[in-house]
Structures are given as structure tokens and as C-alpha cells.
């Protein structure tokens, strides 16, 4: 049965280059390859969720600048619906410039994220969660995300957070979260290691928590039970968007399986994506 998800957060244009290395000061590089796609943690997750056979909607700020055509065309190709919280915004959407190092698959990113495109909560409609099975929040639209998380909790709709990095305001959303899926770069205030992070999140009564660590095992806490998931060993081509793709796949699997199994299956999808350049080509393998 097809499931439906709402992904709340950042919508960008990603300009992705494959090169021998990031440029040094005053250096010009010629890239070996390039691609352009819609980006942002919630956006990439929404594409993955749709690709796995579900119905996806991304909720964020898009606007009407000519460059938004790149975003709308890309997302239409993957059957992702867009709920635009500021249809009259005439400035450019956030643009991320990304350089992927050819030999390692590591990426360097410069972006303005959603700092200048925060939506007003008055933009939300009462039926926003109608027929939604799961919500993912990436932390780039905090005011809107808090309202969504509160509504989801009241309607027994599970809420996932993409904890790529700590963002002020997350503490107001955590009480409504069912699944906290964090990266090794997610450090709440006063937290210095993974034990601190698990304890911090448990204080918000989040029942299921996981911390991904790249090629190292995923550490998780499942209703108080600790465990780890080994991730596939692969030849990495590009790590860009791996976490976003993991989150989108997790949203798919958690609606049909248990927490550890969903983490394992999502890590398989993310590993597959890392073997291709860009955030979309793994889908056309």
C-alpha cells in the first residue's frame, strides 16, 4: 500500500562538480563532471521516499524567481509535490555549490541554507497533515516545523528528525519526535560525545534514536536497548546527500518494519547512492 509523507525544510539548487580536489585560494579548476539538482536535506529525502514507491510532499520556501524552474522540473521528474510557503518571494532560492573529490568521494559545500528564507507560520493550512503517514523535519524551518510536529503528535503521526547538525530551536521540536536520526556531527549544547547525545535526546523521551557515522557502524537506542548496525563496505564515488537519502529510505522502511531493520535497509540504500556521482544517478543505475 502506498504511503504518504511530508518533508519539512530546505529547498535549494545544488550545483555539483566532480574534481580532483576543492580549489585553493586564487586557483581555477576544471571539473571532470557536473550535475544540477534540487537539494536540501528534506528535499533529497522526499525524492528518495517517492522513488521507493510512495507519495512525497516537500514543505518549504520556493518563490517565483526564474531559478526555481530548475527545482520544480527536477522534483516533478520524481513525482514530488511542492507546498510553497512563500509563493511571492522574488529572490533566488538558496544555491549550494558542491565539489566532490574524485579520489575519495568526499564533498565540500558552500551554501546559505534557509537563514534568509524563513517562512511565517501563518502560511500553514489546517489540512496540512491530511492523509500523511509520516513527517520528516530537517531543522531548516524551525517555526513551521514546531507547529507541524505538535499537530502530528496530536494526530499520532510519527515524526522523524534529520539531525545532520544541531540547530537552535531543535529543543522545542524534540518533545514531539518519535525517531531521532542523527549524524556524527550532531552536537546539542553541552554534548561532547555520543553518550552525551543519547542522554540528551532521552531526556525528551524520544524512544528510538540512531547516530550514523559514515562507513562506521550505526549506533542506536531502541526503547532503552542499545545496538549497532554494520553498514555495507563499498567503493565510494560520492558521499553528497548520503544522509538525506538514508533519511528518506528510513521513512519508507519504518512504516513497514521495526527500527533496527529499517536502519539496516536504509543504510543499504545510502550505500548504493554513494557509488554514483550526484544525488540522482543511483536511481537510474
Q: What features would you describe in this structure?
A:
The protein is of the alpha/beta class and 285 residues long. The chain has one domain: UDP-N-acetylmuramoyl-L-alanine:D-glutamate ligase (3-Layer(aba) Sandwich), CATH 3.40.1190. Helix content is 26%, strand content 26%. The strands form 2 sheets. It has a 9-stranded mixed beta sheet with strand order 5-4-1-8-9-10-11-12-13, with helices on both faces. Strands 3-2-6-7 form a 4-stranded mixed beta sheet. Helix 1 packs across helix 6 and helix 6 packs antiparallel against helix 7. The protein is globular, with a radius of gyration of 18 Å. The model has no long low-confidence stretch (mean pLDDT 95).
Quick overview of this protein structure:
The chain has helices at 41-51, 68-77, 142-154, 170-173, 194-202, 242-254, 259-273, and strands at 4-8, 12-19, 33-39, 55-60, 80-84, 95-101, 107-110, 134-137, 159-163, 179-182, 208-213, 216-222, 225-229. By secondary structure, it is α/β, with parallel strands linked by helices. A hairpin with a 2-residue loop joins strand 11 (208-213) and strand 12.
Amino acid at each position: 500500500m502506498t504511503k504518504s509523507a511530508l518533508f519539512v525544510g530546505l529547498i535549494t539548487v545544488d550545483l555539483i562538480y566532480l574534481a580532483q580536489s576543492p580549489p585553493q585560494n586564487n586557483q581555477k579548476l576544471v571539473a571532470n563532471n557536473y550535475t544540477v539538482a534540487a537539494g536540501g536535506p528534506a528535499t533529497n529525502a522526499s525524492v528518495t521516499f517517492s522513488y521507493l514507491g510512495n507519495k512525497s510532499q516537500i514543505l518549504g520556501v520556493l518563490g517565483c524567481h526564474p531559478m526555481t524552474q530548475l527545482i520544480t522540473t527536477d522534483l516533478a521528474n520524481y513525482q514530488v509535490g511542492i507546498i510553497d510557503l512563500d509563493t511571492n518571494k522574488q529572490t533566488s532560492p538558496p544555491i549550494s555549490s558542491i565539489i566532490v573529490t574524485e579520489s575519495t568521494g568526499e564533498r565540500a559545500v558552500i551554501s546559505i541554507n534557509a537563514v534568509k528564507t524563513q517562512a511565517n507560520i501563518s502560511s500553514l493550512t489546517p489540512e496540512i497533515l491530511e492523509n500523511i503517514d509520516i513527517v520528516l523535519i530537517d531543522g531548516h524551518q524551525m517555526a513551521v516545523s514546531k507547529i507541524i510536529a505538535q499537530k502530528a503528535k496530536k494526530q499520532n503521526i510519527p515524526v522523524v528528525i534529520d539531525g545532520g547538525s544541531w540547530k537552535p530551536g531543535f529543543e522545542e521540536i524534540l518533545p514531539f519526535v518519535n525517531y531521532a536520526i542523527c549524524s556524527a556531527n550532531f552536537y546539542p549544547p553541552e554534548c561532547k560525545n555520543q553518550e552525551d547525545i543519547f542522554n540528551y535526546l532521552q531526556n525528551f523521551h524520544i524512544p528510538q534514536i540512531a547516530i550514523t557515522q559514515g562507513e562506521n557502524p550505526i549506533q542506536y537506542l531502541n526503547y532503552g536497548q542499545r545496538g549497532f548496525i554494520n553498514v555495507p563496505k563499498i567503493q565510494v564515488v560520492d558521499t553528497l546527500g548520503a544522509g538525506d537519502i538514508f533519511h528518506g529510505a528510513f521513512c519508507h522502511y519504518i512504516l513497514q518494519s521495526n527500527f533496527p531493520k529499517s536502519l539496516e535497509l536504509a543504510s543499504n540504500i545510502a550505500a548504493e547512492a554513494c557509488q554514483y556521482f550526484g544525488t540522482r544517478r543511483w536511481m537510474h543505475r
